[in-house]
Amino acid sequence: MEDTPGVNEQKESSRMKVFLVMAGMAMAILAAVLAFSKVDSAYAIDQTGCLSCHSNYKMTKANGQGQQVSLYVAEEALQASAHRYIDCTTCHTTKPHEVPTPLTKLSLAQKCGSCHDYQFQVHRESVHGQQLLRGNLDVATCVDCHSPTGNPHSVIRVLEAQAPAYKKNQAQTCGKCHGNEELMSRYGIVEKVYESYMRSFHGKATRLGSSDLSKLDKASCINCHGTHDIKSVSDPVARVAGLENLARTCESCHPGAGMEFAKGFPGHEEASPKHLPAVYYVGRFFVWLTAGVLAFGAMMVTLELTRLIPINIKVKPRKKARPREK
After folding, report:
1. Using 50, 70 and 90 to split pLDDT, how confident is the model at 42?
2. Helix, strand, coil percent values for the chain (each to nearest 5)
């Protein structure tokens, strides 16, 4: 006996319901497995099992200067680093315990240069690199600018928003050294470069603007001073040395700016009666003008309020004193 069309439709509907229920259960099981399973990507990188010892935060070693250097590697930082897909032996060789490792700033920069050769060669000719070759340990090297903790195992790609070298964070990263008055005083740098930049139009626009890289088009430290090729401001080839170089640097963002435009740049030194007196006195004038306008406005509002508010204060008449009887 053949099924009627209505019965066939009911059977087809029942099969579809069963299929949807089974598919939903399968997806729920898969989601649960993925949620509760531990995906340990760090050990996928660590093919030689280095973290079995180096995950101990107490592990240290004496460097060439006799200082104890931590050999601890934070697994969480390694998972988020730019080099998370590179095995430890890429930087530490296949026999790290048999290779002398001085653990100095210079040796670390040289190790970075084994892959990033161009950046290393350019940095070596910069004001930071030249001082590093002379044994100056105050200068910035690779990890100072590319790692939030100054550790080679936590280097972050420059395109990630939390990276120290990300456009929005560059001034703060440079400010770790150039905002340190004690450190800068050793080199005769008295200007508060970080504070002055953050008070400038560029600094305010960067701080208050979007974190979207496509919208971060305001000048930061590297736009004026360079990246790996930063020169001393007293070096004739520096981007900000002399009016001609400064004008050329300004024109990279402001086409056709020219020499007159560059003359108006106050630099990082605060305007004073001796340095850019016109800028100083005009600035003071507008401060007092703004304060005066606000004070006058507040006074006018107060007077208007006192006129509108009814004052109902009844003064009781004084009783006349009775004349004394004689």
Report:
1. very low
2. 55, 0, 45
Q: Where are the beta strands (DSSP E) in 24-144?
A: 60-62, 68-70
DSSP codes of every residue in 175-201: HHHHT-HHHHHTTT--S-HHHHHHHSH
Q: Are 129 and 123 in contact (CB under 8 A)?
A: yes
Cα separation, 311 vs 150, in Å, equals 68
**Dihedral, CA atoms, 152, 154, 155, 159, nearest 10 degrees?**
180
- AA identity, residue 5: P
Amino acid present at 275 = H
At residue 39, does pLDDT exceed 60? no
Asked whether 133 and 124 are in contact (CB, 8 A), the reply is: yes
From CA 159, how far away is CA 225, in angstroms rounded? Answer: 20
User: Would you call 69 helix, strand, or coil by DSSP?
Assistant: strand
Task: Name residues whose C-beta falls within 8 Å of residue 241's C-beta, 6 or more positions apart in sequence.
Answer: 231, 233, 234, 235
The model's pLDDT over 127-174, given as tens digits with 9 standing for 90+, comes to 999 999 999 999 999 999 999 998 899 999 999 999 999 999 999 999
pTM value > 0.90: no
Single-letter code of the amino acid located at 271: A
Per-residue pLDDT tens digits for 263-276: 888 788 777 888 77
pLDDT band at 314 (very low <50, low <70, confident <90, very high): low
